[in-house]
Amino acid sequence: MSVNRESVLKEAAALLTRKATASMDEIAKAAGISRATLHRHFAGRDALVRALEQLAIERFEHALDEARTGEGDPAEAVRRLIVSVEPVAGLFSFLYTENQLFEGEINEGWNRLDARVQDLFQRGQEEGVFRLDLSPAWLTDALYGLIASGAWAVHDGRVAAKDLTRMVSELLLGGARRRVDR
Predict the structure, then answer these.
(1) Segment 88-114, tens digit of pLDDT
(2) Helices 164-176 and 74-85 sit at what angle, rounded to 10 degrees?
(3) In DSSP terms, which residues pair with 130 in a beta bridge?
(4) Which 8-state DSSP code applies to residue 99?
């Protein structure tokens, strides 16, 4: 039987995002493979987590590129980003919460991608689209938190997958948009 590495990583991400202390046995079970098969693909837990991190960064970078966050209306760029991240929301959730797996280490790739999202919110503030009293860093973290929470809710069956983009977009942009007093 052939093992789909990305499928194994996605299942591992879903489990580790909710239970950072999950054992290799639990990860193998969640992925529908034996522990021996898991160890053939990943020498140990650290190797698995590093592979997850790399895949998540690659997928998030692709989503940022696909969303063209430097183009057009910033609010629409945020919506495009949410749409682009949705197919890999589980991996993104892992990337966002992985700090609980590594003590103080932050991947430079994550920092680079994080800066790109903050730049989007900064541009939105400069163009008068987003509130000035909410920092770009806070808006970025709010976006990440909503995507991660949405991915968990979809995984747990509490939210329909088709509703994720709309719910995240509406909640974030509803609070982030600058209001014009009349």
Answers:
(1) 888 888 877 775 455 555 578 888 999
(2) 150
(3) 177
(4) G
pTM: 0.84
Residue 157: count of CB within 10 angstroms of its CB: 8
- Tokens in use for 85? 């991240």
- The answer to whether 91 touches 55, Cβ cutoff 8 Å, is yes
Q: Which has the closest alpha carbon to 9: 120, 129, 90, 125?
A: 90
Give the Cα separation of 94 and 47 in Å (integer).
Answer: 15
What are 32-72's pLDDT values in tens digits? 999 999 999 999 888 998 898 888 889 999 999 999 999 99
State the greatest distance between any 2 C-alpha atoms of the chain, in Å, as a whole number: 66
| Residue 172 near residue 146, CB atoms below 8 Å | yes
